[in-house]
Task: inverse folding
């Protein structure tokens, strides 16, 4: 996975600690850091390509320490810092992006960041890696690598899109989901599963990491 996503965006949430998130970060060619996440850089032993945002979440000490990485800070209140990071990525031709630090600490920020994934998916190949799992937005039929027993949830943002699941414990055949919860709490049966879209759609797939003692 680490060789697929050349750019990592560090968002201002819970500091990344899961090995997959750290592997992505340490193998990234480009690290775009939201200004509030600068506090994580030293712990992560990460050197940013750029620090973006509105500048209101970075301490004066870190503003001086990382001055050479600060790009034109966008004071606009129309977009959050994560979207400003993606605008920077697009302007610089970074189109395969993994987000870390996008969840945790504040539920409203977590929900906002997750909801933005579908919009990013129209412009980027993107995933969000948390300390507990991976969110992958898809716009067409997609097959995922997995392990038997992996927890999987599928959230449909287009209720009129019929879905079929292959390789999941609880079968779904040509069904539309009117509520986000309807495709949640499923389970992989083998080393891969497929979310089949029978029409254009906006679907978010979550794969939970296995617990260490499970």
Result:
């Amino acid at each position: 996975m680490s060789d697929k996503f050349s750019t990592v965006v560090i968002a201002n949430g819970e500091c990344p600690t899961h090995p997959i998130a750290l592997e992505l970060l340490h193998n990234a060619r480009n690290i775009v850091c939201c200004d509030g996440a600068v506090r994580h850089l030293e712990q992560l032993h990460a050197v940013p390509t750029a620090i973006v945002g509105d500048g209101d979440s970075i301490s004066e000490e870190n503003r001086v320490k990382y001055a050479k990485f600060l790009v034109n800070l966008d004071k606009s209140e129309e977009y959050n810092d994560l979207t400003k990071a993606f605008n920077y990525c697009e302007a610089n031709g970074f189109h395969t992006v993994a987000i870390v630090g996008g969840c945790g600490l504040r539920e409203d920020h977590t929900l906002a960041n997750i909801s933005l994934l579908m919009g990013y998916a129209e412009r980027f190949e993107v995933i969000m890696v948390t300390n507990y799992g991976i969110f992958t937005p898809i716009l067409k039929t997609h097959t995922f690598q997995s392990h038997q027993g992996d927890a999987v949830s599928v959230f449909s943002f287009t209720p009129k899109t019929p879905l079929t699941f292959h390789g999941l414990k609880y079968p779904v055949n040509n069904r539309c989901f009117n509520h986000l919860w309807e495709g949640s709490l499923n389970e992989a049966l083998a080393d891969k599963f497929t979310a089949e879209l029978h029409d254009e759609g906006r679907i978010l797939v979550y794969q939970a990491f296995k617990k260490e003692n499970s």
In short: The chain has five helices and twelve strands. The longest strand covers residues 133-138. The mean pLDDT is 92.
